[in-house]
Amino acid sequence: xxxxxxxxxxxxxxxxxxxxxxxxxxxxxxxxxxxxxxxxxxxxxxxxxxxxxxxxxxxxxxxxxxxxxxxxxxxxxxxxxxxxxxxxxxxxxxxxxxxxxxxxxxxxxxxxxxxxxxxxxxxxxxxxxxxxxxxxxxxxxxxxxxxxxxxxxxxxxxxxxxxxxxxxxxxxxxxxxxxxxxxxxxxxxxxxxxxxxxxxxxxxxxxxxxxx
Length: 212
Prior knowledge:
The protein is α/β, with parallel strands linked by helices. It is built from 9 helices and 5 strands, in the order βαβααααβαβααβα. Helices cover about 50% and strands about 10% of the residues.
């Protein structure tokens, strides 16, 4: 069973590499599909779940009231979530998709949710802020690099706060959470893809409870 989680910094070409890995292995890359699975499990419209996630990422501390207001359209069904319930539902969706096997997860803390999975390969893709900003400037056709740098810095701060708030103070960039970390400023996307594919194909199953 091939399970890969790819955590990526904004501008690290992580989504592109994740999709290339999935294509090379002939399996699915899962990103927004996690939200679709949450919708399927709960009966809440996926559009509302997308909006809730956006609010959580943008303002991770003290957003329960906002989320309740956002999901009030579902009040008659009794399925109005606070932030903790959102994370619980997302965890359930990721675990179910992992149980079905052969999938590349893109973001959403899948490497933390599946940290005890015996065969999952956890990958982090990163690059220096200047390199990421240059990519964002080109991708979004921004007029200056300063704007792109602010976007990168804001994204890093949001993700740092999100992980610390919802995953008990975890530092999302710490090497201890990953089996493989790749600097995409130094390693081309094609090479990074090949490295991940090779690592996934040679991953050794480690029984739960065994540590090195």
